DNA sequence: CCTAAACCTGACGTTGGGTGTAGATTTAGA
DNA sequence: TCTAAATCTACACCCAACGTCAGGTTTAGG
């Protein structure tokens, strides 16, 4: 069996606090594989993967509600998913957002590069002159 | 002279509340062109452009502090900018972030497309069978 | 068996990014 | 000139996403 870890180790590996993990649990984003006797949480390796995915989606600007909506797709087996049309709808909204963001981000990157070049030119001029 | 507008019109054109404009003013993100007598704010068209730029940068995931740091670049004339090395530093940090985000976003988009295709295939199967 | 380290829950605090509201003032138009 | 609409300031409040603190329980190692 793949070994179970406690919240402390999970927290450390995932780079988030244990309180954050508790919080995510309340939102339904991660669940311990088991909680025996006194209530200690024991996690398997999918928990770590979920936390990493959550972090990645957060970096893309999704909030925790949106993440809750798309996260199952990465972990549920497709055959068991209910309401597939609804899921597709959500995905398409996210896709449209992603495409817009891609364009804006590309433009922003160009801006930044232009500004950097301009600044460096000015600095060089100042140093020469 | 290009006509000045009041906060109500600016608010409407920019698609943000006047309270938000007040808030941004406190953070130094926008300033009225003038405030005569009793304190009414009158804005020129650069204010609208600033608000639009702020919105665009927000969509890219910058927070208001980061926006405050890069916003001057879009409006100040380059010859007047102090501390150019510092500015370049900030820009390079933003550029690195933008590049990372571009990669992640591209991957996310691929994921979404894959998931959508998979879902639609499942739906089609269900309808056939 | 005992104790330190890890964990638990629940309540309250904090930060960022705003929104709501009240009461007073000002302005524009009939 | 008068009034309705717009604006002003200041303080309070909201939500998301956590963090802190307190007090109690559990577990692992010597």
Description:
Two copies of one chain form a homodimer. Chain A has two domains: 1-62, Multidrug-efflux Transporter Regulator, Chain: A, Domain 2; 82-129. The N and C termini of chain A lie far apart (70 Å). The mean pLDDT of chain A is 89. Chain A is built from six helices and two strands; from the N terminus they run E-H-H-E-H-H-H-H. Chain A is mainly α and 129 residues long. Chain A binds a DNA duplex (30 and 30 nucleotides) through helix 2.
Question: Short description, anyone?
Answer:
The first copy, chain A, is built from six helices and two strands. With 129 residues, chain A is mostly helical.
Task: Lay out the secondary structure.
Two copies of one chain form a homodimer.
Chain A: E1 5-6, H1 7-14, H2 18-26, E2 42-43, H3 45-59, H4 64-70, H5 72-75, H6 84-128
Antiparallel strand pairs in A: 1-2
Chain A binds a DNA duplex (30 and 30 nucleotides) through residues 6-8, 17-20, 22-23, 37-41, 63-65.
